[in-house]
């Protein structure tokens, strides 16, 4: 649908509980119209859902944050800020825009029209890697799957508190697409590989989104200390995204430091009910923030701790624990005299291919001669790897 038609269907922006400021794109002829076109498209296509979620009739003016643009093309994010009410979360979208004789034509992510537009955009506006990602994400989003292939947003083998069971992105809103977590070192990690996009950047906080090839996207809110990766940069499973906090860069509220973790499919939020994430299958309750997570017959409700068991492919994992050291050596063989091939920072997730006995090491938990070979090569002593067990968790090499 073209922007001119969208204007006829636009939702009027009224007095806002949260003041939204347009972030102007780079200067150039006709650029002043870009913000208007993106805002009107966002209100027309996502405004009704935002109004229902926020339970308001008047929405705040959407933010428009272009990250790349020239005279004819633009790419970035747009966000409808949430009102300052309990648990409300902002609505955000990735946009691509093309300027023709009629003005700026805007498409929002999660649609066939968006995929078509990004394929046509020059590579300095949308990279080849992004074009491939958005196409695969859209294609895969049309097939429902129970196991998301995603982990939970912290280190594997570590337990965090589930402070809020399945609930809406704006608290009581439907679908119940979100979960609240806190614990450990507070480092929020990407739930899967993809590309990262940030919006509503204010006061060291923002809304972080990772678009995954498998048809899902995940969002992370309330964090500070955000990753310095630029928009569209690749992220791997377990990469750092931010630190749990109480940031409210685009409205809402929070009662304490945590990450508001949400699941999207296509252009909208999708229920976590019945979905497996991090080895746990989540079930919603009769009310928002209730429900539980289930794994192998064990159920954990709101207020309980759950361990991130990873992406569900069965590969054993451990978390680097250097004790007083900020990093741990990876060696070419299970020997202290073997060359160091890499240094892993404390908190890194290691996927274990197999185990062997080698030189004894005085590790964090005492002396051990057990070594773990990574799935990408290299050996790390079990004395500096938390696996939840003193015994081998992978087959012998």
TrEMBL record:
Signal sequence residues: 1-26
Active site annotation, chain numbering: 222, 258
Comp. bias regions, Low complexity: 314-324
InterPro entries: Dup_hybrid_motif, M23ase_b-sheet_dom, Pept_M23A_Blytic, SH3-like_bac-type
UniProt keyword Membrane present: no
Pfam families tied to this protein: Peptidase_M23
GO biological process terms, semicolon-separated: proteolysis
SUPFAM superfamilies: Duplicated hybrid motif (SSF51261)
GO molecular function, one term: metal ion binding
Region of interest (Disordered), ranges: 302-325
SH3b domain residues: 315-389
Reported cofactor(s): Zn(2+)
Domain of life: Bacteria
Cofactor binding note from Swiss-Prot or TrEMBL: Binds 1 zinc ion per subunit.
Transmembrane segments: none
Name the record gives this protein: M23 family metallopeptidase
Annotated source species: Saccharopolyspora hirsuta
């Amino acid at each position: 649908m073209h922007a001119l038609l969208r204007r006829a269907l636009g939702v009027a922006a009224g007095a806002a509980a949260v003041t939204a400021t347009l972030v102007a794109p780079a200067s150039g002829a006709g650029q002043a119209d870009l913000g208007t076109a993106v805002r009107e498209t966002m209100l027309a296509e996502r405004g009704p859902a935002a109004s229902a979620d926020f339970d308001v009739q008047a929405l705040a003016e959407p933010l428009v944050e272009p990250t790349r643009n020239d005279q004819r093309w633009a790419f970035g994010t747009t966000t409808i800020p949430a009102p300052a009410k309990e648990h409300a979360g902002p609505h955000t979208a990735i946009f691509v825009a093309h300027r023709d004789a009629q003005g700026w034509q805007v498409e929002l992510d999660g649609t066939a029209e968006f995929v078509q537009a990004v394929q046509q955009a020059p590579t300095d506006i949308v990279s080849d890697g992004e074009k491939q990602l958005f196409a695969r994400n859209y294609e895969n989003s049309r097939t429902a799957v129970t196991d998301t292939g995603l982990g939970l947003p912290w280190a594997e083998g570590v337990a965090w508190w589930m402070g809020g069971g399945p609930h809406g992105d704006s608290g009581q809103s439907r679908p119940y697409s979100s979960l609240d977590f806190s614990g450990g070192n507070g480092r929020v990690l990407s739930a899967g590989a993809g590309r990262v996009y940030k919006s509503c950047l204010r006061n060291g906080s923002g809304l972080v989104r990772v678009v995954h090839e498998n048809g899902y996207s995940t969002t992370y809110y309330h964090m500070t200390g955000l990753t310095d990766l630029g928009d569209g940069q690749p992220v791997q499973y377990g990469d750092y995204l931010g630190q749990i906090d109480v940031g409210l860069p685009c409205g809402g509220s929070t009662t304490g430091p945590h990450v508001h973790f949400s699941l999207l499919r296509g252009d909208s939020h999708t229920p976590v009910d019945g979905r497996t994430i991090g080895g746990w299958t989540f079930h919603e309750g009769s009310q928002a923030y209730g429900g539980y997570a289930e794994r192998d017959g064990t159920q954990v409700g709101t207020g309980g701790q759950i361990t991130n068991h990873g992406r569900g492919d069965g590969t054993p994992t451990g978390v680097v624990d250097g004790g007083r050291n900020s990093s741990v050596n990876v060696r070419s063989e299970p020997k202290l005299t073997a060359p160091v091939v890499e240094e892993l920072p404390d908190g890194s997730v290691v996927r274990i291919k197999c185990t062997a006995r080698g030189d004894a090491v005085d590790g964090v938990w005492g002396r051990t001669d057990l070594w773990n070979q990574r799935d990408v090569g290299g050996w790390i002593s079990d004395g500096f790897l938390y696996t939840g067990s003193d015994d081998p968790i992978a087959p012998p090499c």
